[in-house]
Design goal:
Chain lengths: 115, 114
């Protein structure tokens, strides 16, 4: 079965700082990759997703992520964070072929942006 | 409005009590799943279903039962609640299960077991 690792559990940044959150996955086949965000007290919201093609994908709110197949990684980046980016960020995968047809999430990264 | 509806939103149980968390969707999605969210652990998959009559276990299935008698409903049953089941529970649905068409999440059920 697939698994996802997020090694940054809690990140504190000042406004305007650059952000990079790590995500690595483990699976015997190919996967689809996702980043979700959960603002305090709100639903999960899709930031971006990668299925195929250009490994650099752009999402909402200025976020982007790069899929590096050789490293099994899908790191999330933003050049300049804002206080409103304070949230929980979750990386997730689904298998492309056979396998568990449900999102498998990492443990999440809590981002705190200080004004 | 189309979407995933979870009930109840909040629940307090005593240890050993049973209850069912309801999840319903009106989008004709084949794939439905249940997650629990705990601090520092992200969302962990409890059970999932790829269609009516078909269910399978996720990462943390112990203590939970599911059934899928219709496409629309996917209830989660706690047979004998334990304090370790205190969590926020989310139901999600998808047409294909791959995420290509997106996943829709419910608003969650916050369960406390005392």
């Amino acid at each position: 079965a697939q698994s996802v690792s997020q090694h940054n559990h809690h990140v504190i940044l000042s406004e305007a700082a650059s952000l990079e959150l790590g995500c690595n996955y483990s699976y015997g086949g190919t996967v689809n990759l996702f980043w979700y965000v959960q603002y305090p007290g709100q639903h999960l919201q899709l930031l971006l997703k990668y299925f195929s093609g250009d490994p650099l994908v752009k999402g909402i709110k200025g976020f982007e992520a790069e899929f590096i197949k050789s490293k099994f990684s899908f790191n999330l980046r933003k050049p300049s964070v804002q206080w409103s980016d304070t949230a929980e960020y979750l990386c997730a995968v689904t298998p492309k072929g056979t396998g568990r047809r449900a999102l498998t999430f990492g443990s999440g990264t809590r981002l705190q942006v200080q004004p | 409005n189309a979407g995933v509806t979870q009930t109840p939103k909040f629940q307090v149980l005593k240890t050993g009590q049973s209850m069912t968390l309801q999840c319903a969707q009106d989008m004709n999605h084949e794939y439905m799943s249940w997650y629990r969210q705990d601090p520092g652990m992200g969302l962990r998959l409890i059970h999932y279903s790829v269609g009516a009559g078909i269910t399978d276990q996720g990462e943390v299935p112990n203590g939970y039962n599911v059934s899928r008698s219709t496409t629309e409903d996917f209830p989660l049953r706690l047979l004998s609640a334990a304090p370790s089941q205190t969590s926020v529970y989310f139901c999600a649905s998808s047409y294909s299960g791959t995420g290509l068409d997106g996943y829709t999440f419910g608003s969650g059920t916050r369960l406390t077991v005392v």
